[in-house]
Amino acid sequence: MELTLPVLRRRTAMAARARCNPVLVVCLALLMVATVCSGDARPLNGSGDGPVAPDVALVDPEATDESRALFANLRGIAGDQVLFGHQDSLAYGVGWANQAGRSDVHDVTGAYPAVYGWDVGDIETGADENLDEVDFEAMQRWMREGYERGGVITVSWHMGNPVSGGDAWDTTRAIHTILPGGEHHGAFTRWLDRFAEFVGEVGDIPIIFRPFHEMTESGFWWGGQNVTPQEYVELWQFTVEYLRDRRSVHNLLYAYAPDWQETASEQAYLTYYPGDEYVDVFGYDDYISLISDATVPEMTRRLQMIVELAEARGKIAALTETGLKATPHATWWTGRLLRAITADPVSRRISYVLLWRNASEQDHYVPYPGHLSEPDFVRFYDDPLIVFGDTVPDLYH
Ligand code: BMA
Predict the structure, then answer these.
(1) What is the 3-state secondary structure (H, E, C) of the chain?
(2) What is the mean pLDDT of the chain?
(3) How far apart are alpha carbons 353 and 74 in whole angstroms?
(4) What is residue 56's predicted lDDT score, i.e. its pLDDT?
(5) C-alpha distances in angstroms, 389 versus 38, 77, 94, 287?
(6) pLDDT tens, 221-270?
């Protein structure tokens, strides 16, 4: 881990003041070396030196200062803090929708999540609302609201099938038709234009963009048996280059997120990997490991793996989707999720965990008032490693 810029600046100033005193110079030199070697990179906030654009290598060399700060700070908190996230948290919950200030997470803990997940599926059709009936303009307001509270915004895209006109689960082969030269290429770039406009309207807030997720399984048209790894890589690279270089979208960090399926080894996890120059966040989605106590170590092992892969490249790792639908286990939060994350010093270095949406009583992933796992969710919230919106550090300076 490198020294953050404000710390370096302070240390250099101290060294200048101490120039005439050789003993002090030696002590300061030792202190600088010790800090570099300790791996103790703290978030940049609270330095008193004002905003800095940290020196990080991102997919986008022109990324905004805040996006760079977000990345550096998420890297800096690794091992000490894991941010808690929830999909669609502000839009609806079990038994309610569109109530200002409400979130099931907040109803249960008194705090908002630290990470807010949203999905832009159907934006490609020009619809007013996404595939889960979330109004796009309201979504933009909620994105800003979460960001203004200091939270992190992440966006996935259940993009419809560009060949058949079906939904994301329509597995008609499609990628070869939307790449340059393909018959649907023009239509595809218009979809990306709509996304760029949507993101532009939200303002320049940093967004962790997680397109074409869970590609290691065959559920979506962009993954598994429906594609070749080469096609997938070309789709990813084209998408990044189009948004970044043609549309000048500079507030995105890019998250690669295979599924539990086919990610037991590094080689399998990297099958569709588009390359170090195209990925900022090493993610992974897992709805399988935490179904039973016996398989919790499966998650720990995969988290270790993605943290190691990420850190070897100067990137960050995250559990980009997880949960157990309508969990019937009273201690699922501390007994499974927290146990999986904290089981070893490497797995706990993920930067955030995102739970999926609370669509209904039968289809929800975080508790609501009265749910049997509510007390354990509060214990999870109280754990010093886990960070909700009320204790989130300043991630943007
Ligand atoms: C899936 C389910 C679907 C939803 C989709 C996109 O996992 O929750 O009901 O439409 O995500 O959010």
Answers:
(1) CCCCHHHHHHHHHHHHHCCCCHHHHHHHHHHHHHHHHHCCCCCCCCCCCCCCCCCCCCCCCCCCHHHHHHHHHHHHCCCCCEEEEEECCCCEECCEECCCCCCHHHHHHCCCCCEEEEECCCHHHCCCECCCCCEHHHHHHHHHHHHHCCCEEEEECCCCCCCCCCCCCCCCCCHHHHCCCCCCHHHHHHHHHHHHHHHHHHCCCCEEEECCCCCCCCCCCCCHHHCCHHHHHHHHHHHHHHHHHHCCCCCEEEEECCECCCCCCHHHHCCCCCCHHHCCEEEEEECCHHHCHHHHHHHHHHHHHHHHHHHHCCCEEEEEEECCCCCCCCCHHHHHHHHHHHCCCCHHHCCEEEECCCCCCCCCCCCCCCCCCHHHHHHHHHCCCEECHHHCCCCCC
(2) 90
(3) 12
(4) 80
(5) 28, 15, 20, 24
(6) 999 999 999 999 999 999 999 999 999 999 999 999 999 998 899 999 99
pTM of the model: 0.88
Tokens in use for 139?
A: 């979504």
Q: Which atom of ligand 1 is nearest to the CA of 121?
A: 6
- Weakest mean pLDDT among 23-32, 39-48, 204-213, 225-234: 39-48
**Residues for the chain: how many in total?**
397
Q: Which atom of ligand 1 is nearest to the CA of 131?
A: 10
Ligand 1 atom 10 nearest Cα: 132
Residues with CB under 6 A from ligand 1: 119, 121, 131-132, 158, 356-357, 359
Q: Are strands 96-97 and 92-93 parallel, antiparallel or unpaired?
A: antiparallel
In this prediction, residue 54 has a pLDDT band, given cuts at 50, 70 and 90, of: low
